[in-house]
Amino acid sequence: MKTICKNLRILTAPNSGPMTLFGTNTYIVGSGKGICIIDPGPENDKHYDSLKRILAVEEASHIFVTHSHLDHSSIANRLSKEFSIPIYAHGNPSGARSVFMKDILKFSKNFGGLEGLDQSFAPDFFLMGGEIIKGNSWTIEVIYTPGHLSDHLSFSFKEKKTLFSGDLVMGWTSTLISPPDGDVGQYYSSLDILLKRSEDYYLPGHGDGIKNAKAYVANLKKHRFA
Fold first, then answer.
1. What b/e string do you get for 119-156 counting C-beta neighbours within 10 Å, with b at 16 or more?
2. DSSP 3-state assignment of 209?
3. Reported confidence tier of residue 110, pLDDT bands at 50, 70, 90
4. Could you give the 3-state DSSP secondary structure of residue 64?
5. Secondary structure class of 20 (helix, strand, coil)
6. Are strands 33-38 and 25-29 parallel, antiparallel or unpaired?
7. Which of 85, 144, 195, 225 has the fewest CB atoms within 10 Å around its CB?
């Protein structure tokens, strides 16, 4: 585990690969009693043991999940049950599909694009975007940012003016958009939402932190149009 700054640490899961780079980033916000965990990660015993060691000496009050892909969410239910930590997420990818994607799915047989989806994921609290959630030494603003996945959320850590961007904005490459739950139209709209915000430092689901993030996001838009 690495300390990024006061009240903010990162633990990267050992699931490196061509789609995950070094692995999925799990973020620990706060310290002591009332920490929150952002993207607890994949179902991996080594990663789970690392989280258990943290929770042996600290107490978590919230689990936040950016989106319900297996490498971000699948360990959440196990962690929640063992340590009685409620899960906060959008948690409804099929319901959040755009009308266009719903129509494509309706009239297409054997449609792909559902790989990697955590079909058993079920948060305790459903987030739609716009919520402000306060904890011990932290405040999280929820931002609905579909595109990579239709239930994708980003989280603003208000005290640090830092954005947890999940897989919408990653630290080493442009994100995968795989229909029907990935939608390039929603992706562009979500990038526009981020460009209007004040945060200029992002902590992504994969890869290193992104400085000058708004310029980085603008370049992502150019990359897709090129």
1. eebebeeebeeeeebebeebebbbbbbbbbbbbbbbbb
2. coil
3. low
4. strand
5. coil
6. antiparallel
7. 225
